[in-house]
Amino acid sequence: EPKIRIGIAGYGNLGKGVEFAISQQPDMELAGIFTRRDPDSVHPVGDRVSVYPLANVEDYTEEVDVMILCGGSRADLPEQGPALAKLFTTVDSFDTHAKIPEYFDALEEAAKPAGTTALLSVGWDPGLFSLNRLYGETVLADGVTYTFWGKGLSQGHSDAVRRIEGVKNAVQYTIPSDEAISKVRAGEQPELSTREKHVRECYVVLKEGADAAAVEETIVTMPDYFADYDTTVSFISEDEMQQNHSSMPHGGFVIRSGKTGNGTNQVMEYSLTLDSNPEFTSSVLTAYARAAHRLNKSGQHGAKTVFDVPPGLLSPKSPAQLRKELL
Ligand SMILES: NC(=O)C1=CN([C@@H]2O[C@H](COP(=O)(O)OP(=O)(O)OC[C@H]3O[C@@H](n4cnc5c(N)ncnc54)[C@H](OP(=O)(O)O)[C@@H]3O)[C@@H](O)[C@H]2O)C=CC1
Ligand SMILES: N[C@@H](C[C@H]1CC(C(=O)O)=NO1)C(=O)O
């Protein structure tokens, strides 16, 4: 079996994580990195990795089996996703939850006629948490589901703030409400609004001469990202950013508490504790790249989500080997 040739579109936290993840896969090789910046300004981990201008990506359709899209969900993927799905089988981590249906349609429109396969919203949320919410609500039909994130750094929210005019650098931490979590764990099945479950803390380095009040207002009112949350914004120096906010831990859990029989209590839980959000997310993207390649080869074209991917396709092991490992 020839190795699956992976391309990376966009070299940031995720792009670097995918480069690491590929090196852990026996059946994959990195065909190249594609960036909108000057390729000479981008320094991969591996010293023999080719870096190309994204503008020339059409020249590489014969060299790449699966392109993993590592751009930002708010400003990059809405344009890059459909454009690249016309050329390649793709996997991305699109996470602007409210816009997933319209993004799905745009990818379907691009991939179907092109005979490519576009796996969208792969990661942990959306992604593995989505799967576990589905398992919970289908297995425990009578019940309630809760998702809590953090305390940790949300890459989607951090990226969204970094794109605001006047912002030089930014990170966003998501903090869950301990009170809400304890009510859920006590089995109280509370009704919780978005605002009652998490608060968001942003740390921002401004560009020279930027208007702090205008940046703060843009953040706290940002639809789909901050408008529904209590959000604080602190302005710090680049030194403070480098000293205090260089690691990207995160995590969280999905919990389904329900009843079976004559009111028997049952609880399902899936949790993550991540020292590196991007490296974990990149590992999910890379496993799903294997599945995307197989789906495409079997004629499954168009847009797909994690709900459409049989789990066995993620594994480098044969179906026969997996069957031996069911228990
Ligand atoms: N579904 C999920 O569970 C998760 C989803 N995500 C998603 O992943 C997205 C990407 O996150 P992340 O990798 O942290 O984003 P980054 O900000 O690190 O990178 C986004 C893009 O910005 C460009 N870039 C990166 N570094 C620089 C730089 N120093 N100067 C200029 N441009 C730069 C790159 O494009 P180029 O190389 O072309 O310049 C890159 O593709 C997030 O927006 C989020 O939506 C993240 C985590 C989990
Ligand atoms: N997509 C998130 C992954 C999780 C984290 C999160 C949040 O903190 O709001 N929501 O979903 C990310 O970009 O890190």
- Which strand order do you get reading across the main beta sheet? 3-2-1-4-5-6-14
Helical stretch tally: 11
Number of strands: 14
Residue stretches low in confidence (pLDDT < 50, at least 5 long) are none
User: Hey, roughly how much beta strand do the residues contain?
Assistant: 25-35%
Structural class: alpha/beta
* Mean pLDDT rating: 97
**Helix percentage range:** 25-40%
Radius of gyration: 21 Å
Choose one word for the global shape: globular
Calculate the terminal CA-CA distance, rounded to whole Å: 28 Å
Cofactors and ligands present? NADPH dihydro-nicotinamide-adenine-dinucleotide phosphate, the ligand N[C@@H](C[C@H]1CC(C(=O)O)=NO1)C(=O)O
What are the secondary-structure elements, in order, as H or E?
Answer: EHEEEHEHEHEEHEHHEHEHEEHEH
Characterize the largest beta sheet: strand count, sense, and whether it forms a barrel. 7 strands, parallel
Description:
33% of the residues lie in helices and 27% in strands. The protein has helices at residues 13-22, 77-85, 100-114, 128-139, 155-162, 178-185, 194-197, 212-220, 238-244, 277-297, 319-324; strands spanning 4-9, 28-35, 51-53, 66-69, 89-92, 117-119, 143-149, 152-153, 167-176, 198-206, 230-235, 250-260, 264-274, 302-304. The strands form three sheets. It has a seven-stranded parallel β-sheet, with helices on both faces. The chain has a four-stranded mixed β-sheet with strand order 8-9-10-11. The mean pLDDT is 97. The ligand N[C@@H](C[C@H]1CC(C(=O)O)=NO1)C(=O)O binds next to α5. Ligand DA3 binds at residues 95, 123-125, 149-150, 154-157, 174, 250, 277.
